[in-house]
Specification:
With 386 residues, the protein is mainly alpha-helical. It folds into two domains: 237 residues, Cytochrome Bc1 Complex, Chain D, domain 2, CATH 1.10.760; 137 residues, Cytochrome Bc1 Complex, Chain D, domain 2 (Orthogonal Bundle), CATH 1.10.760. It is 28% helix and 5% strand. The protein contains 13 helices and eight strands. The strands form four sheets. Strands 1-8 form a two-stranded antiparallel sheet. Strands 2-3 form a two-stranded antiparallel sheet. Strands 4-5 form a two-stranded antiparallel ribbon.
């Protein structure tokens, strides 16, 4: 692990920006006496230590200097010349992370009211109009006071970990939303829109800033987010890798002889034992896309608008929602779902399919599809639903 990674370990954000931290068992940790505000410039611990001779080393495995037979080799300046220095433009293209203290937030701003509109258009299909979550998609609002719950047998409720109840910081979410959302079309949101979305989510979670409520006309920008303190900010304890988890004395006696250990291998090939329930195209490098061998193989190279091509494109890009009704999508084959839509006429259907409508993203989220392909898919779905 490099010094850079070590110093930024706590910034690796999954959906909740928590991958480098260990949550304490209860919300009581917020009052823990040992809690100390993290220093962003030494975060979460110093990456460099010194050995008994005072020489700088890195005990977590990162290579600081070449080592030969345990002795540090001193290098002259510019002795190692690999590659070339990155240009400022190249660095800017990769340097997109945002720290918990807000460093890395770009220029931009938007009011909460405008942010609510952006959220409704780009996020509500999965997360609900008010962050309540749709289907199995993450719930973003509520859950306060539930982190001490423990799900046991008998249907007891477990902790509800949402952005409001569980996340320690809000600023890393700017990075996550900007780079990964919306799921079908990531990186489509502008800097202003991301600020607006975060402001709307903070308002829904009734987060106060400087003791004041977040209003519809509140302007959200970098300076505002840096002042936000989430309710569970003190509910996390960062690992100090200098302190061992155990203090036992190493035995190093009576060890098993590795030469006498027999490794068992499973010889059962289970790759063909399960037939996928969703018959979607399976892609292989160097081969023409085709369906699973358990079903008929359509000709995918037919011209745009051809029946086989439209059906294959539908299954590859649209069936996930239109075959299940996810996010309120009309189910193909359900006449009641499609009757009012068919009455609108093909022109309207085409426009909605190409440009997006309500919770459906443009072209079903696959912008590589041509307009003709989308129209052919629409004709296929309509034909199956009359």
């Amino acid at each position: 692990m490099s010094r850079f990674v070590a110093r930024n370990l706590a910034l690796w954000t999954g959906a909740l920006a928590l991958s480098a931290s260990v949550a304490l068992a209860s919300e009581g940790a917020a009052k823990a006496k040992h809690y100390k505000v993290a220093n962003p410039d030494h975060y979460p611990y110093h990456g460099v230590a010194k050995d008994k001779k005072g020489r700088p080393i890195n005990v977590d495995g990162a290579i600081m200097r070449p080592v030969i037979e345990g002795d540090v080799v001193k290098l002259k300046k510019n002795q190692l010349k690999y590659g070339q220095n990155a240009t400022p433009e190249q660095i800017a293209g990769w340097n997109v992370d945002v720290r918990p203290d807000g460093k890395g937030l770009p220029p931009g701003q938007m009011t909460v009211e405008k942010g609510a509109e952006v959220f409704a258009k780009n996020c509500a299909s999965c997360h609900g109009d008010f962050g309540e979550g749709v289907g199995k998609n993450p719930v973003l609002v509520g859950g306060f006071g539930t982190l001490t719950h423990q799900a046991k047998t008998g249907g007891d409720e477990g902790p509800e970990k949402t952005l409001g109840s569980y996340a320690p910081y809000i600023t890393p979410f700017y990075w996550y939303i900007k780079m990964a959302m919306p799921l079908p079309t990531p990186k489509k949101l502008t800097n202003d829109e991301v600020y607006g979305i975060l402001g709307y989510l903070l308002q829904l979670n009734e987060i106060k800033v400087d003791g004041k409520d977040i209003e519809d006309d509140t302007v959200i920008n970098a300076e505002f987010l840096k002042k936000v303190h989430m309710p569970n900010e003190k509910g996390f304890e960062y690992n100090n890798l200098r302190v061992p988890d155990t203090h036992n004395t190493r035995c190093m006696k009576g060890c098993i002889d590795p030469k006498k250990v027999k490794v068992m291998h499973i010889k059962i090939d289970a790759t063909e034992s399960i037939t996928p329930t969703v018959k979607v195209p399976r892609y292989a490098i160097g081969e023409t896309p085709e369906f699973n061998t358990a079903v008929e193989k359509p000709v995918l190279k037919a011209k745009s608008g051809g029946g086989n091509a439209a059906e294959a494109d539908y299954k590859a890009n649209c069936a996930a929602c239109h075959a299940t009704g996810a996010a309120g999508a009309p189910v193909v084959g359900n006449k009641d779902d499609w009757a009012p839509r068919i009455k609108q006429g093909k022109k309207t259907l085409y426009e909605h399919a190409i440009k997006g409508f309500n919770g459906m993203p443009p072209k079903g989220g696959n912008m590589s599809l041509s307009d003709d392909q989308v129209k052919a898919i629409t004709d296929y779905m309509v034909g199956k639903s009359k």
